[in-house]
Amino acid sequence: MAEPARIEIRGKNVDFYILQNDQILPRRFWSYDSAAVAAQRLEEKQLHRGAMIRPCICCLQIFSSSHRFNRLCTRCSEEIA
Ligand SMILES: [Zn+2]
User: Fold this and answer.
1) Ligand 1 mean position to 9 CA, how many Å?
2) Which of 1, 37, 39, 44 gives a 20 to 30 Å CA spacing to 14?
3) Are 20 and 58 found together in one domain?
4) Tens of each residue's pLDDT in the chain, 81 residues
5) Alpha carbon of 3 to ligand 1 centroid (Å)
6) How would you label 13-51 residue by residue, b for 16+ Cβ within 10 Å and e otherwise?
7) How far is the CA of 60 from the centre of ligand 1 (A)?
8) Do residue 56 and residue 41 come from a single domain?
9) Residues 62 and 39 occupy one common structural domain
10) Number of domains in the chain
11) One domain, residues 7 and 35
């Protein structure tokens, strides 16, 4: 699985920006707080990428799949393993 991107906030006074894997994002922020909110949204987006709610192919229970190829709920994957 891909490593989550490293997100940092840099800047001073009224000029802040976000670094994502050492790349500066084009958007500028006038305060640390507004940059922090945007950084947090970025992180949340990454967390949810690929994850979705789907039925287990074994017991048909709805579960939260952590990645695209995860088709078994925790219980069934433990039983099969
Ligand atoms: Zn199941």
Assistant:
1) 41
2) 44
3) no
4) 456 678 899 999 999 999 998 899 999 999 999 999 999 998 887 776 666 788 899 999 888 877 667 788 888 988 866
5) 27
6) eeebbbbeeeeeeeeebeebeebeebbeeeeeeeeeeee
7) 6
8) no
9) no
10) 2
11) yes
